[in-house]
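In this section we walk through a basic example: taking a raw amino acid sequence and producing a predicted 3D structure, encoded as discrete structure tokens. The instruction is simple. Fold the sequence below.
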Amino acid sequence: MENKNVLIILAHPEPQSFCSSISSEVEKFFKAKGTSVTIRDLYKLKFNPVAGPDDFTKLSDKGKTHFQLSGEQREAYTNATFSKDIQAEIEHIKKADYIFFIFPFWWSSCPAIMKGYIDKVFVHGFAFDYYTGAVFNNGSLKGKQVKLFLTTGGGEEYYLPEGPHKMTVEERLEHLTYGSLAFCGLNIHHSFIAHGVSPLTPKEQLDKLMGNLQSELENINNAKMLYQMN
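The resulting token sequence is shown next.
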């Protein structure tokens, strides 16, 4: 895996969380393989998740009278008029061969700060393009790989068809994996899910989960994809 680039996008407000431990282990694993690793810790960066006119150094003529986010993003990518913070994140995505999202499973989704990252960085004109048909199998980010690493407070039994949530975590996250990321042409791995994690989780259980993580990382290049873009 030499000459490859890994981008870790971490969203957890607690530096000592299990999500942060996952991030550290993923970083250590890939660096040992000679892979370049970049971590974007969204809470540490104080990333602003609210998309709007401040994302741009200049608005289009239309944007000055009627602001439409997707249209302004496409204009900004063409004309290099994104704010510096957004442009910096776009450059990280460009360089990445693997993109790993690490977060706690909140309200059947990711934290707002991570959703805002996708809103503001996976922009029209760069990550996809409606007008040229650059979506899904023809998506602009085709060839890059994505994997989600997440924790839940409830045990796995809560996320079964017969459980309280009526479906698995991976099914719940289809809006993110398929609706957002595969839409941009990304190849999506099955998610790594650490169920039942809290500050009271016994150390032996956390050690077992970390062992499961190591096994998934060792087999990442041989694993069957959740969504494989052609």
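Looking at the output, two observations stand out. Residues 64 and 110 are 32 Å apart (CA to CA). Strands lie at 5-10, 36-41, 98-104, 145-151, 187-189, 192-194, 225-227. In the next section we compare this with other chains.
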